[in-house]
Structures are given as structure tokens and as C-alpha cells.
Amino acid sequence: MTMSRFHELLIAGALGLAAAGPALAQSTTSAPAGGGSTTTAPAPARSTQDDQVPAGTGSGGIQGQNIFDVKPEVKRDASSEPGYMEQKNGERNKVQPGNNSPMWRAVQGGAEGFTSLPKSQAPEAGNLIQAPVQYPGVRMTTAGEAWRQVRNHWIIPYGGSLLLIVLVAIGIFYFAKGKMGHSDALGGGGRRIERFTPFERAAHWTNAIAFCILAISGIVMAFGKFFLLPIMGQTLFGLLTYLLKNAHNFAGPLFAVSLAVVFFTFLRDNWPQRGDLRWLLGAGGMLSGKELPSHRFNAGEKVVFWGGVLLLGSVVVASGLFLDQLLPGVAYVRANMQVAHMIHAVAAVAMMALFIGHIYIGTIGMRGAYTAMRRGYVDEAWAKEHHEYWYDEVKAGKVPTQRSKPINMASDTGETVRPA
């Protein structure tokens, strides 16, 4: 019984060794020098084809690669099909709707696409490119490009040239003739006459300051890249134009209101009167050296009033308010904004050219003119020399020498005097 049990155990052990034979054959046994324990290394896992290291790249570790050798993954699309470049528009429209010549010709022609936005909120939401138009002086092309050509090929070069011509002409006249007149506004002799009331001066200077802000900012925005950008650089020039653009937008409404006040304030004395035509034909006597007689405002000032303040001023204000989107009940679409900009730019350049002459006469061109507007008073000698008809009316009592409430004012010598 005992012998039989021993045989059974021996057979079971032999079978166990036979089963463990293949696993032992895959293991390696190493004995370190000088004896010690043995270590069995596990067999490496079978690598797939994607995990194989490319030939010649070395063994193990993170491998380096030139980023320019890495090709982007290109997914197959309609352009990958054989004969794609030879497809006709009908075939192209089947595989790539929208990527065909007729579709883009329609877009360039002003065709509108689908949009979920209501027309009242976004009237041009479905329109990518404006339809072709032909503005004066440019060829038939899309409206945006036509506006750009009018601005860059006509308004900028010819408008800038006009302003330069006016400045050069005034400079030549000043150095050739010098200041006009023989006496200052005050100190020439005779009674003091109130030429401008405090209200008239306040209205004038408010409008003048607003105009200067608009003119300087407009010139920088339109022409600054030609004479400021090379000097200041892009960063400073960009900051300057950003600030002036905002100043332009805020000064516009102030100019509009003050312009209306100026118009109605000085309307009474700017109607055509006797002697105006003669003054115009003789250029006011500026070339002959003897100034022609005129009323409170001469014919040149009346041209500035009616042509600059009323006509050009109204056009500039209306188009400017439209560009600022301050007018209710109008459609602010691209076509209307482009036309408004062209009208605004042309009228503004003409207005600046006209007002440059007015500013010249009122500052350095005529003795006493600036003092008259700054302090409001002139004396009889100045009034007779420059506005003889007006002086005759004052002398005859038709026009009062003091039209506002008398106030104490300081004279040039520092003494306090009361106007006559």
C-alpha cells in the first residue's frame, strides 16, 4: 500500500516537470561573480508593426525627428479624386457645393445668401460683396473697391493738393504784401465801438475751436500717413489717430450746434448790400493797397458766411452726423456710408480751403482783426479804414456804439476804462 502511494507521487512529479519545461526554457539564469542569488528576466512582449523602431534610428529611448519632416495628416476629400482639376462646374457643384465659378460670380455680383437675422436688424447680413457700381472718375467694379478708388485716386491727392496750394498762395501773399491795414483795432484814435458782443464772440470761438479740432484730426486721418507716419512710426501714429478719431467724433456735434448758432447770430448783417459787388470785383483792394469800403461785414466775409457756413457747413454737418449714425430713420448700410463719406470728404476739404483764408485774415493777415474778435472793440480809425459804410452808420447813429450791457474792461496800458 505504501509502495503504491510512492509510485503515484513519483508519476505526478514527473508530469509536473514535463509541463513546466517550456516556461523554464524561456527564462535566463545568471549568477554574479563570486556567487550570490540568481535573477530571472521576464521575456519581452511581442511588439506590433506600429511599435517597431525604424531602421538606423538606434535602439530604445525617445527618438528625435526634424519637425520639417513631419507631414500633416491629409484627409481625403473631393480634391483627392482623380481628375478633380478637370471637373466642369456642374460636376464640381455635386462634390463641393459652393466651390465653383458661377457661385462666386453671383457673390461678386451682390447676390444675397440665407440669414436668420431679420432685415430690420441686419439689412446686409446675407450680402458678402456689394454689387458693382461706377462712381465718377473710376471704372465699373464692386462698390467697396469703387469707393476705395475714389478716395485714394481723387479725394486724397487732389484734396491734399488744394490745401497745399492755398497755404502756399497765402504764404506768398503775406511775404509780398505783409499785413493789411495801418492801425490796430485799439489805439488808433476816436471812440471805441463795440464790434462783437460777448455772446457773438462766445459763439464764434466755440465754433472756431470745434472746427480746428475737426480740421486737424481730419487732416491727420486722411493725410497723416504721408508726413507723420514716417517720422512717428506705426505705434505712436496709431495711438495719435485713435485719439484724434474719437476727438473728431465728439467735436462734430459741438460744431453742428455752434454752426447753427453762428449762422442765426450773424445772419442780419450778412445779407447782400450796396458796394458788395464792387468789393468782390476789386478783391477788396488787397492788390491795390487801398481797401474798398464795406459794411459791417465785407463781401469776402459774406462769401465765407453763405458758402462756407451755410452751404458747405450744412453738407459737412449732415454727412458727418450720418457717418456718426446719429440721424434717426435712415439705413446705415455700406453703400450709403460710402457715398456719405465721399460727400463729407469733398465738402470738408473745400470748407478748410475757404476757412484757411478767413483764419489768415483774422489772425496775422490784417492788423487789429484778431483783437476785434478777442476783445470785441475797435476804435473809429480802424472802423473807418476797414468798414467805412459801417462806420458811417455808427457815426450817423443808425448803429449804436455799444450794443451789449457796458462792462469795465482793461486797456492795453493796464488802466480800467468804460467803453463809450
Automatic annotation (TrEMBL):
Spans through the membrane: 154-176, 205-227, 247-267, 303-323, 343-365
Membrane protein topology class: Multi-pass membrane protein
Cofactor annotation: heme
Compositionally biased residues, Basic and acidic residues: 70-79
Signal peptide boundaries: 1-25
Region named Disordered: 26-102
Alphabetically ordered keywords of this record: Cell membrane, Electron transport, Heme, Iron, Membrane, Metal-binding, Signal, Transmembrane, Transmembrane helix, Transport
Subcellular location as annotated: Cell membrane
Entry annotated with the keyword tRNA processing: no
Domain Cytochrome b561 bacterial/Ni-hydrogenase: 195-368
Pfam families with a match to the protein in the record: Ni_hydr_CYTB
Keyword DNA-binding appears in the UniProt entry: no
Any one GO cellular component localisation term in the record: plasma membrane
A Gene Ontology BP annotation from the UniProt entry: anaerobic respiration
Superkingdom: Bacteria
SUPFAM superfamilies, alphabetized: Transmembrane di-heme cytochromes (SSF81342)
InterPro entries: Cyt_b561_bac/Ni-Hgenase, Di-haem_cyt_TM, FDH_cytochrome_b556_subunit, Formate_DH_gsu
Single GO MF descriptor: electron transfer activity
Biased segments, Low complexity type: 26-45
Similarity remark: Belongs to the formate dehydrogenase gamma subunit family.
Protein name stated in the entry: Formate dehydrogenase subunit gamma
Organism: Caenimonas sedimenti
Taxonomic path: Bacteria, Pseudomonadati, Pseudomonadota, Betaproteobacteria, Burkholderiales
